[in-house]
TrEMBL record:
UniProt KW keywords: ATP-binding, Kinase, Magnesium, Metal-binding, Nucleotide-binding, Transferase
SUPFAM superfamilies per record: Ribokinase-like (SSF53613)
A Gene Ontology term for the protein's cellular component: cytosol
Designated name of the protein: pyridoxal kinase
A Pfam family: Phos_pyr_kin
Xref: Gene3D superfamilies: 3.40.1190.20
Family: Belongs to the ThiD family.
Metal-binding in keyword set: yes
UniProt GO molecular function: ATP binding; hydroxymethylpyrimidine kinase activity; metal ion binding; phosphomethylpyrimidine kinase activity; pyridoxal kinase activity
Cleavable signal peptide: none
Sequence ranges assigned to domain Pyridoxamine kinase/Phosphomethylpyrimidine kinase in this UniProt record: 13-253
EC number, as in UniProt: 2.7.1.35
Length: 268
């Protein structure tokens, strides 16, 4: 058996909740070999975090290395810290469009990102990345930034997902997650012939750092291996649910712990 190769282009999370670390762990669980280009290094403690951008020339060299590899099965994109990073990654993934699935997780909902920067990033993501995407997976705040619409209900999730679908991605998943009120973690799914909300019970233990990265990496892993996209989304939801349920406590002071990607396999 030959193991398939998949690429993540994302930030490094020093505490391994999200980012490249979550993506690689997820790819491994789905039987793929993950390769990575790092866009930024995120340092975190319980009070704050900082995004240290990787210079554009260094990201370009990583992408050149990855571009020389054969038989890539899919690409997942996470945190891109500036418009210049978005431009470069957009150029890179254009060569793969129509050949392999491309999953874009438009990571922007860092509290420290000021609104000017968020609005610049959001405009660039809409123009340069969403039209290239097989699947795009914004969380509630990112979907609000991308559409300038407030989201308060499942109906709102569906409305903004439809707005984002018109920009060009084949499938849109807007994640309500813990941010939407209610007992359920609900996500809206829109594609050409689908309009639905998927939901599982909301887990109260706050071990969901990395939930979004893990969810989109799980979708990418499956569609890279020809699983139909709607089945891949349902399975990714189950995968991340187990990961939150059996998440990793960092220390007693941290309010949030990490998703554990091996949870479904190890805990069943
Ligand atoms: N506490 C939770 N209980 C159950 N599912 C959750 C919980 N938090 C997030 N999810 C689910 O995990 C996935 C990732 O969502 P979310 O955490 O909103 O993304 P992000 O990490 O990008 O903010 C979604 O399917 C969401 O519904
Ligand atoms: C590099 C990086 N990307 C993305 C995220 C977002 O993670 P999540 O999956 O919780 O949205 C984080 C969070 O710490 C991160 O450090």
């Amino acid at each position: 058996m030959v193991v398939g190769k998949i690429i993540t282009i994302a930030g490094s999370d020093t505490l391994s909740g999200g980012g490249v670390q979550a993506d690689l762990a997820t790819f491994n669980e789905y039987g793929l070999f993950g390769l990575s280009a790092i866009t930024s290094i995120v340092t975190v403690n319980q009070y704050d975090f900082d995004i240290h951008e990787v210079p554009i020339s260094v990201l370009a060299k990583q992408l050149t290395s990855l571009g020389e590899l054969s038989d890539i099965k899919g690409i997942k994109v996470g945190l891109l810290p500036s418009v210049a990073h978005i431009d470069l990654v957009s150029q890179f993934i254009k060569q793969y469009v129509g050949r392999v699935p491309i999953v874009i997780d438009p990571v922007m909902a860092f509290k420290e990102t000021d609104s000017v920067n968020a609005s610049e990033l959001s405009t660039a993501i809409k123009q340069k990345l969403l039209p290239l995407a097989t699947v795009v997976t914004p969380n509630l705040i990112e979907a609000e930034l991308l559409t300038q619409q407030a989201i308060h209900s499942e109906a709102d999730l569906l409305t903004v997902a439809e707005m984002l679908h018109k920009i060009g991605p084949k499938t849109v998943v807007v994640k309500g997650g813990v941010r939407l009120d209610g007992d359920m973690a609900s996500d809206a799914v829109i594609s050409e012939d689908t309009k639905k909300v998927i939901k599982l019970s909301k887990i109260e233990r706050p071990f969901n750092n990395g939930a979004g990265c893990t969810f989109s990496a799980a979708i990418a892993s499956q569609i890279a291996q020809n699983v139909p996209v709607l089945m891949a989304i349902d399975d990714a939801k189950d995968f991340v649910h187990h990961g939150i349920l059996h998440g990793v406590n960092l220390n007693d002071d941290f309010k949030v712990g990490n998703v554990w990607q091996a949870a479904r396999r190890r805990k069943g």
